[in-house]
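Readers of this paper often ask what the protein records in our data store actually look like. Such a record has a labelled line for the sequence and another for the backbone structure tokens. Nothing more is needed to write down the fold, since each code stands for a local backbone conformation. The remainder of this section carries one protein's record, kept here as part of the documentation.
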Amino acid sequence: MNQLRLLPLATALLLAGCATALPELPASPQAPAQFKRSAQPWTVAAPAEAQDRGTWWKAFADPVLDDLVMRAGAGNTSIQEAAARLAQARALVRNAQADRMPQIGVGAGATRQAGANTAAGAAPGTLLQAGASLSYEVDLFGRLARSQDAATLDAQAREALLQSTRLLAQAETAQTYLAVRALDVERALVRETITAHADTLRLTQRRFQAGDIAELDVVRVQSELAATEAELLALDRQRAQTEHALAVLVGEVASGFTLQEAPDWRTALPVIPPGVPATVLTRRPDVAAAQASLLAAQARVGIAQAAWFPGITLTADGGFASPELGDLFKWSARAWSIGALLSLPIFDGGRREAGVQGAQGRLDEALAVYRGNVLVAFRDVEDQLAALRLLHEQAGAQGRAVDAARRATTLSDTRYRSGLVSQLELLDARRSELRNRRQALQVRSSQYQATVGLIRALGGGWG
């Protein structure tokens, strides 16, 4: 009889020895020796996704930008959503931890019943009960432990996603603000052009009234002036929409949000030190989140595999039972029970096999997502490094074009006032200068955007 009592335990140990190990994960994409767009070598560094990104936006030395980024950190709704999802994930971790702990409860009840087995004419009986119960599932095959591990990894992924969302909100706030400032400068430039066209129109009208030129010259200047005024209105509309987008990023109502115009754009353009990409890329939170999700999917494969093995639950109950309330807590009314339950499904129509296959499919999906995030991380850095290098060269070339166009406008204006050149030559010179100055401004704006983009691609600041 003693040997028979040990039979369930021996069977469980035998099945535990036959448990299938978790699948191994393929290697992640090989890191390059160095970035294509940088001569600095790639440095092998430990993951540092939990490291503080620092106040990287202060490198732009713009107090208005500092204030907007801080307001976005407090009011951005995407950050608040990510924080709420992190709180939910942490609650699931505590729930998984609770499943591994003994479950203790107390209860009391009163039952009054009569049945077919009651003697004829007997009155219904009353049974009063009070006691405590304890149950504990023996995690012999690691199912509960793996559930807790998977929940913990999910929480880590949510924490990394919160970091990623915060970094994204900061970067978008900075880029949108810098776009507004670029529009302010461009609008001032167009206003300056309108003033020059208005002066030319007055001069042309005087010469027309004096009979020196034909009415066609006056109409040409009027047309150029009106077209430039239309361009200014289009820029005003674009500026208003960009300002409204900035209001949403900082979590405020667009109707009550105003950003004062600053045509004198003095925001500093930081230069990221060489070699930074090699050591900072390890902090990218989106890659860390994908890795944690991958490990969680791997753990859930083990959970699905553990469904093939029996479950063992230990139970214990103790308390009092009596038909009279006054006798309920007497020692003679005590009652207790101890039990062990072993359950093993024999036939489930393929449910457990489907669970394993589904978990394996989710693992394959998580692996593809992780590899994709790693590849995108390398691409993002390469894109921004290439953009900054080429924009620097483009800015130099565009600066020379602006200087030449400005000189041409000055000479044409002088010659036109002296009657040495036609009005068309002056208008062409001014159009060329305006076009080149606006292109130079766009190149400068792109440099700011690419700098913020590189900071985001690196996972934060480099301090």
Summary: The radius of gyration is 37 Å. Strands lie at 103-113, 125-138, 311-322, 334-343. The chain has ten helices and four strands. The chain has one domain: 31-38+52-102+131-320+331-343+356-458.
